[in-house]
Amino acid sequence: MRKSRNDRKSPQAIRDRINRYQQMGLGHYNANNNDVWLIQELDKLQKYWKAFLDMHDPSLVEGTDYFVNRRNLCEVVQRVDKRAAYYYVFHKNIEICEYKWVGLCAYWVNTLKPFMVVKEDSVLYSCPNEMFSLFLIISVVRRIFEKLKEKSPEKFEGKVFSYLSGAEIKDTIYSFKYCDLSRESMLLFVEMFARSCGVGMDMLPPDDKDRYEV
What values do phi and psi take at 78, rounded to 5? Predict the structure, then answer.
């Protein structure tokens, strides 16, 4: 069973995770890995990937039209979790919020490129990772928008979620693929996009126990 947020962010748990990463290295994260938490995080990303495919090209078949590099996907999870440990240790025990989580995921997906589409006539052929990372960002921000609207309907009366325009999507994917964006730039992009949708950082619950699972 996965540990609770409080268990996983205790000082000892943070030290254990940092030591584990130092000792194991990337070789530990392979197709036979049985770490329950890791498997759950991988499943979360792969469910988003499946939803992304269902929206853009549901005809694609894994192993024929596209491939998932599980090793690289494991490294995405590992690096996001390392950064979460960093925030906890060096930023007054702060648990990373949903926007930081998705920004880090998007950054490492763009960097490590765990998804490959080989079907040349697919709309996803040229930049599957960049398109997926943008889909992931929009999906998480939209989920937060819907949850906050459900919780405080009076504050969101008459408001609808603001999607990016076609031109904005094209420019963003281009930037993800060809521009040298840092982690901090990606986090800032997510925060600015969320603010433009009316659900900025200040709208997130201040207490970890009230965080939304994404």
Answer: -60, -45
Q: What is the mean pLDDT of residues 87-109?
A: 84
Does residue 38 contact residue 28 with C-beta atoms inside 8 Å? no
Supply the range of the domain harboring residue 141.
Answer: 5-210
pTM: 0.81
Q: What does each C-alpha distance from 140 to 29, 62, 86, 125, 147 come to in angstroms?
A: 26, 24, 22, 24, 11
For residue 149, what are its two tokens?
């609207």
Q: Return d(Cα 82, Cα 21) in angstroms, integer.
A: 8
The domain total for the chain is 1
| Unique residue bearing structure tokens 């491939």 | 67
Ranges of H-type helices in 68-199: 70-90, 98-112, 128-151, 166-178, 183-196
In this predicted model, what pLDDT tens digit does every residue of 15-60 receive, in sequence order? 666 565 555 444 444 444 456 778 888 899 999 999 999 999 999 9
